[in-house]
Amino acid sequence: MRKLIRSMCAAAALAAAAPAVVSAAPAPAAPAKGSSPMDGARKALDEVGDMNYQNKSLNEVVDDLKTKAKVPVTLDPAIFQFGLDPNMQAINVTAKNVKLRDGLRQALAPFNLKCGITKDGIFISTEEGLTTKQLRQRVSVDCDGTPFAATLKQLAADTGANVVLDPRLKDKANAAVTLKLDDVPLETAVRLLSEVADLGAVRMNNVLFVTTAERAEKLRPASDGPTQPGNPNPVFPFPPGGPDRPFPVPIGPGVPGVILPGGPAVDPAPVPPVEAKPAPAPEKPVQQEKR
């Protein structure tokens, strides 16, 4: 009995001496070996725990998520063109028993940013930037008499994008399709597969909805157009006239420059201004004094 009492006292002393651990965000379990970054990201975002960030910057939160979630977290570099400072300490979140995805949404709200899943992990961007990233992921398709619904389901599972098949299609959803595509955007693959299956696809924000060609045509006026690839230069987008029309951009303090099609900014040689000088007045004849 005395030995048992001594052991209990020693354990209590060690527990009292141990430092308290404060978790800034839920600490998900490490992803299983061999799982994809997307699977790890999905599992991490569904983990429940406490989140506490006080006067933290966006960069600090992203670094903390990378460490605790053990999955890739990418901050879209295109957001910097909007004047966002990721080092600004503007994040204050205190939440208990919350899913990581919900706590992260609160943390990103001051910057008007969203987070989502891609095959590369967690991606943070504007709503439009996130939609473009998800729907323009590169995929390959090799179907030879494969059921259409199964092919679509696999594409959605491989990319984490919202690809929805109209449940009213019934047997038509299982039509056999034969198509081979290599390294194309996900949205392009879904539209071409739908065309081969005599169906139609429309984009509703970040959702690709596949239905009959007739219903797709009715939805088209209220739908969003196909996503567009990002600008070749994320800082200086091309003007409305297209990339063939160079336009001035600042390339130095007070020094104008131009972006030429297919090339970097070039500083044109300055042309010295020509000043107009007044014509000299005619000289008056010098009169000699009479003696």
Can you describe this structure?
The protein is an alpha+beta fold. Among the domains are: 37-133, Phage tail protein beta-alpha-beta fold (3-Layer(bab) Sandwich), CATH 3.55.50; 136-222, Phage tail protein beta-alpha-beta fold. Helices cover 30% and strands 28% of the residues. The chain contains eight helices and 13 strands. The chain has helices at residues 2-17, 37-46, 58-69, 100-108, 127-135, 148-159, 186-196, 213-219; strands at 48-57, 73-75, 89-99, 114-118, 121-125, 138-147, 162-165, 176-185, 199-204, 207-212, 248-252, 255-259, 265-266. The strands form five sheets. The chain has a three-stranded mixed beta sheet with strand order 2-5-4. The longest helix has 16 residues, at 2-17. The N and C termini lie far apart (147 Å). The model is unreliable at 1-5, 7-31 and 232-268 (pLDDT under 50).
Concise synopsis of the structure shown:
The chain is an alpha+beta fold and 291 residues long. It has helices spanning 2-17, 37-46, 58-69, 100-108, 127-135, 148-159, 186-196, 213-219; strands at 48-57, 73-75, 89-99, 114-118, 121-125, 138-147, 162-165, 176-185, 199-204, 207-212, 248-252, 255-259, 265-266.
